[in-house]
Amino acid sequence: MSTVDDSRIRRLSAWYQPVVDLNTGRVAGFEVLSRLVAADGAAASAGRLMEELEREPEAQYALIRQLLSAVRSDIVPLFERRPEFYVSVNIPPSVLGTGRLGEIVQDLGLERWVTRLVVELTERQALSDIGRAGIDIARSLGISVALDDFGTGHSGLSQFVGLDLDMLKIDRSLLLPILENRAAARMLRGIVGLAAALRLRTVAEGVESWEQAFFLRAAGVDQGQGFFWSKAVPAREVEALLDRGFAGTLLPPPPAR
Ligand code: G
Ligand code: MN
């Protein structure tokens, strides 16, 4: 049932990028990302292929199914042993809003693990009625919902109002200027305030430096994700990241000699 017969999709592997708790430095969760893995083990993001697949709802469905199937075999054994972390999956409205996520969860036997799953819904495109319906569908399955790429396109408050969300993933474009630009820093703090008022957990995406991480922690952002800590890693490295965490990275760097 979980086999995928699209050869383009079978070339893709599920890799896992850690999301770091900015208060403790521990790994709070992982975002599942599709990667093209070369014969030498090097992984690349599948930009063009992903764009192609984005235009095909059936292919999207097959891809989500394959990713969640990987989560079942790679991560569910860890869920059993380690109660503290989640896994988030990017799911387009075409899959989420049509009730087909429930079908996948049932077919893969993931019902027991729904509280450990987060659906990331991008706001790069306007949220259609189908996307909005999808939020309720995920919630009724017991799965948490994150609004992804917040700030990039359609965070117009009229689209945002009334959505039943759990998490806000702040796009890296809002982080880039925070260290140089006072207005950008204030906006970031304002978003943290908005998220707090809405009882949403915040994740800052695309963190690439210690200075950004330090600022974000001071601003009250809950979690961070980005190359500063780690790129996406293959499943076999996930447990070591849970053990190790990144506490050391949140201390000030040693003074330059
Ligand atoms: O749209 P979404 O937030 O799901 O995109 C995640 C993408 O962001 C992944 O393809 C991942 O490789 C990329 N990414 C993750 N961390 C960083 C980072 O620190 N800097 C940049 N430029 N991209 C990142
Ligand atoms: Mn995402």
Tell me the number of helical segments per DSSP (H or I, 4 or more residues long): 12
Give the integer mean of the pLDDT values: 93
Please list the strands of the largest sheet in the order they lie side by side.
1-2-4-5-6-7-8-9
Largest sheet: 8 strands, mixed, barrel
Name the ligand types: guanosine-5'-monophosphate, manganese (II) ion
CATH architecture of the domain at 9-164: Alpha-Beta Barrel
The CATH superfamily title of the domain at 9-164: EAL domain
At the third CATH level, what is the topology name of the domain at 9-164? TIM Barrel
Indicate the radius of gyration in whole angstroms: 18 Å
Q: Strand tally, please? A: 9
Class based on secondary structure composition and strand pairing: alpha/beta
Low-confidence stretches are: none
Task: Give the oligomeric state of the chains in this entry, treating copies of one chain as homo and distinct chains as hetero.
Answer: single chain
How widely separated are the two ends? 59 Å
Bulk shape: globular
The proportion of residues in beta strands is: 15-25%
| SSE string | HEEEHHHEHHEHEHEHHEHEH
